[in-house]
């Protein structure tokens, strides 16, 4: 087999003796050259993680259905599915590996497979973050919405919108990289993806701030004085009208009632008003005691047990830590483009991305949010 390069004037092909043995070096530089990855991905861990994430996807899908936790389908299940697709693309790259005899010889893999794996593996944790945002919003609404400066109605909405922005930016960067015809164009896509990862990291830090504030206030029984609720207009407001019928009924038994103007009218109105005032004070006192010891303003759902509450708080804490470490790694990795020293280091990728997301997927399968907020299918 012959390899060749062009002469300095780019008109004459200069032949070289070469071979296609795996790991052959470039005859001009003496170094082994790889396209896309900068190294040849190891097949064994690639196959292993592909199987593990596919099993994890099946688990997330079945658990979402079993617990009727439909919101985990577009978050946990979709994120795990993207991990499967990404690792499938990585395995495709390995199977497409071939020796290109041009320019002294280098190892080539399908560029589409490379873009498929990088885009899916970078974007997937965005859906995992969305699961955390929704889960914490549910916890807040159930066991203490008064302890967050951000109203639960707006909490999940704001963070989900931010998550979608991160997703769009990262997808745009992946699209630019995938359609680029030059290395500079591909690197530009990588830089845009880096921006999306950095924004996601910032959003996650803000999420941690709100989370920690809620935990601190709830532990100290210190409700906020005023909540920020920018999306209140998009939610239906429940009107709280006085129950005239009950007042009228109780008044009729004591010689009192409501006149045409809605005012209390009774033969002994001072006594009745004093009784109402006393009952009101006792009610407010009992309400404060109940809020302090068992805060739950969501009357439409049963209060979360202390055991499940601790499980969910621990789950969110561990999951968020995994996402932060992984996002920091990805931001540093992509900042130097596809050929930076971190981007071409496979052990770092396996340890700071693959392993962390594997732990996340199986952690959320072992302690599924449906344990706290789901309803068994059978």
Automatic annotation (TrEMBL):
Compartments where located: Membrane
Superkingdom of the source species: Eukaryota
Pfam families assigned to the protein according to its UniProt record, in alphabetical order: RTA1
Residues covered by region (Disordered): 239-269, 281-301
Membrane topology of this protein: Multi-pass membrane protein
Keyword DNA repair listed: no
Polar residues bias (residue ranges): 292-301
GO cellular component: fungal-type vacuole; plasma membrane
Compositional bias (Low complexity): 246-258
Stretches that traverse the bilayer: 48-66, 73-94, 114-136, 157-178, 190-216, 311-329, 349-367
Keywords on record: Membrane, Transmembrane, Transmembrane helix
InterPro entries on file: RTA1 (IPR007568)
PANTHER family (UniProt xref): PROTEIN RTA1-RELATED (PTHR31465), SPHINGOID LONG-CHAIN BASE TRANSPORTER RSB1 (PTHR31465:SF9)
Official protein name in the record: RTA1-domain-containing protein
Organism: Kwoniella pini CBS 10737
Upper taxonomic lineage: Eukaryota, Fungi, Dikarya, Basidiomycota, Agaricomycotina
């Amino acid at each position: 087999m012959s390899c060749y390069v062009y002469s300095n004037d780019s008109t004459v092909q200069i032949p070289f003796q070469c071979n296609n043995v795996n790991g052959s070096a470039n005859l001009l530089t003496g170094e082994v050259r790889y396209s896309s990855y900068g190294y040849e991905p190891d097949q064994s861990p690639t196959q292993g993680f592909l199987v593990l994430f596919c099993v994890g996807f099946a688990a997330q899908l079945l658990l979402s259905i079993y617990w009727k936790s439909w919101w985990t389908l577009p978050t946990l299940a979709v994120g795990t599915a993207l991990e499967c697709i990404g690792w499938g693309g990585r395995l495709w790259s390995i199977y497409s590996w071939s020796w290109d005899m041009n320019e002294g010889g280098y190892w080539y893999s399908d560029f589409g497979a490379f873009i498929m794996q990088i885009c899916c593996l970078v974007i997937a944790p965005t859906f995992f973050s969305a699961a955390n945002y929704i889960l914490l919003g549910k916890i807040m609404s159930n066991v203490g919405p008064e302890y967050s400066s951000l109203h639960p109605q707006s909490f999940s909405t704001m963070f989900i919108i931010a998550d979608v922005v991160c997703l769009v930016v990262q997808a745009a960067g992946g699209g630019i990289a995938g359609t680029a015809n030059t290395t500079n164009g591909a690197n530009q896509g990588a830089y845009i993806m880096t921006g999306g990862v950095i924004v996601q990291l910032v959003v996650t830090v803000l999420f941690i701030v709100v989370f920690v504030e809620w935990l601190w206030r709830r532990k100290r029984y210190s409700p906020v004085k005023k909540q920020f609720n920018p999306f209140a207009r998009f939610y239906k407001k429940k009107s709280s009208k006085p129950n005239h019928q009950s007042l009228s009924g109780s008044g009729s038994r004591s010689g009192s009632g409501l006149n045409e103007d809605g005012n209390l009218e009774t033969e002994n109105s001072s006594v009745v008003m004093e009784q109402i005032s006393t009952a009101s004070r006792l009610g407010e006192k009992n309400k404060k005691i109940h809020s302090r010891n068992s805060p739950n303003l969501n009357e439409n759902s049963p209060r979360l047990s202390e055991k499940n509450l601790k499980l969910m708080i621990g789950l969110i804490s561990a999951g968020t830590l995994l996402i932060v470490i992984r996002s920091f790694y990805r931001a540093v990795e992509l900042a130097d483009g596809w050929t930076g020293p971190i981007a071409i280091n496979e052990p770092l990728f396996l340890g700071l991305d693959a392993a962390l997301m594997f732990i996340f997927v199986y952690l959320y399968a072992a302690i599924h949010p449906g344990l706290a907020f789901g309803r068994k299918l059978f």
